[in-house]
Amino acid sequence: QGTLTLLTNERGGIVDDLIVTNTTEDHLYVVSNAGCTDKDLAIMRGRAAELQAAGSDVHLEVSDNALLALQGPSMARVLQAGLPDDLAKLSFMNSITTTVFSVPGCRVTRCGYTGEDGVEISVPAGRAVELAERLLDVPEVWPAGLAARDSLRLEAGLCLYGNDINETTTPAEAGLLWTLGKRRRAAMDFPGAAIIMAQVKEKPKRKRVGLTSGAGAAGPHSPPRVLTSPGTVTSGCPSPSLGKNIAMGYVEAVHSRAGTALTVEVRKKQHPALITKMPFVPTQYYMAK
Asked: For the whole prediction, is pTM greater than 0.85?
């Protein structure tokens, strides 16, 4: 079983968002953002050293793996042809270690960054190209670039690290308090706990919201745009599924209710926008029966 979790700093900011799987092989399997590898490893190594000094039997091992994401409605049919395991038994956020199209030692996790049914395949780096080419031999499988990935994850209301969350953003502001379990809330034994739990009690002054607009949406990596609330737009793009512009950003909490009308400034022009509940497009995550 896996879950999304967060590394936080002493100011309550988000250092990285991670997928952590509690495996059946007596270890935790962690997938971090590639751009955060160095700082994440420094934190984990420091904490491992502290635990070892206290007598705990713990060590950190870095895998030389690549990550391939196979996403979309046809994923299960395509991947099942190359698996000895029954994908129908694999639910969202669960994983198995298996052989994929004759490549052994792969960890297949039913998750992804698109809001669709999909898997992320952790594959030994030396055979990643081989597996990618094998998948692309299937007529239904096409390579997708970052723009396609970005529009899908934004339609699903998923945060992009560095855009929508960063070291100055707290889990409470980002709407990610669900990643913080009851035990950790009670123990307050994580960096920034006092600041984050104070925001849980008193509510944060700003919140992450979804926005829809008829025209002039900021591009997916445009600089933040000023809202008249005031606030900032952190991600935005035209939605292929909805035929309108969608965005994500932060506004003052008093203006964060869905249905609130705002004005967004894009390229020095003002456009009306509406705070809209996320996900913009319903997700299609698979749960085994």
From this structure: yes
